[in-house]
Amino acid sequence: MLHRWAQHRYQDKQTWRNRLDSLHANWAPLLAELTDTYLQWKALSSSHQDVISVDVDYSFTIPTIDIFTLNHEATIPHSADSISVVDSLLRAGYLSPTPITPTIVISLRTLEHYRLLHNRKFSLSIEAFAKVLCDSYSLPFCRRYRILLSDAFDVYLSLLRNVEKCVLAALGCDTPNWQVLNACPPCTYEVVDEPPLHFGRFYVLDGGNSAKRMASVGSRDIADTRHFVESDYLLPRDFIDTFTRDVHRQDAVTTAEADINDMTDNPPEPENPIAANCTKNWKATVGDEKKHMWGIFEEAGIFVAICRHGFLLWYADMV
Questions:
Q1: Phi, psi at residue 62, to the nearest 5°?
Q2: Phi and psi dihedrals of 52, rounded to 5?
Q3: pLDDT tens for residues 241-263?
Q4: One Pfam family of this protein, by short name (predicted)?
């Protein structure tokens, strides 16, 4: 009997990249309207007003995950003229992992609670918080709950990015180079008749090569192909690629000048062999024309500049 039914087992041939692309394509046309719905829910929840009641005939009950109430299901008000089911869910304070035929939803307060925890403890993973939810509901953990939480949290972050974009546009803070010019009030703002300082700004620049990402090899594809271009710190990759030829041209000129200097400089003086070995092995002392990164990396690291008050000014992604 087991051998008979094993032949009819369904095998999903969809790759992880196909799944993510389909999920993001289904959410994309709804995010703009869902952002307005989220703002309405936020205004009602902050003013402690009840959600407007609608036709009971269209209401439905759905399983829920809420770390604060631990309710197993909730009745969602729904009307015939609603944009979609996810819009009604969002008005009630819930978000589904998928916009098509949701079977379980997560409360917005739960997603916000995880966001705050993750901001203070970056090592708190999605899987760890999913296990906390399972323990709270006295359920055994399975991979399904982590996927549900991850998908819903990605959509929740997309809504927050849209809200932040609207707020910055309303305040006039979305102009080019606004972060560099106005990120730190003590450094950038001046009062009337303020005497000029000897040093206008103090900031530090440093890079880290631990955030490397290898380039795709052969027919292997990257699963998550999203590009977050809403950042007002990071320049788009397409814009950076326009300066590729300028960098190569500058490297060629620097190498030629270094060769000329090597021929015209005076003979080096005898050095201490111990110090010579130390400087030879110290990569930071190597000339810029000899510093190269392995070609197997698509991303070599990051480089940031921060003022003395702790505000981020520049963020460069070394690609």
A1: -145, 145
A2: -65, 130
A3: 787 777 656 555 555 555 555 55
A4: KDZ
pLDDT single digits (tens) 72-121: 999 998 887 788 899 999 999 999 999 998 999 999 999 999 999 999 99
Nearest residue to 176 (alpha-carbon basis) of 247, 252, 105, 232? 232
Residue 29: CB atoms within 10 Å: 11
Name residue, tokens 């303020």.
194
- Extended beta strands in 172-300, E state: 203-208, 213-214, 297-299
Domain residue ranges of the chain, discontinuous segments joined by + = 15-171, 179-254+276-318
Contacts 24+ apart (CB under 8 A), 16-20: 16/223, 17/221, 17/222, 17/223, 17/224, 17/225, 20/223, 20/224, 20/225, 20/226
What's the pLDDT score for residue 283?
Answer: 60
Taking the model in full, what pTM does it have? 0.74
For the sheet with 73-76, list strands across it.
Answer: 73-76, 60-65, 105-107, 94-95
* CA–CA dist 201, 197 (Å, integer): 9
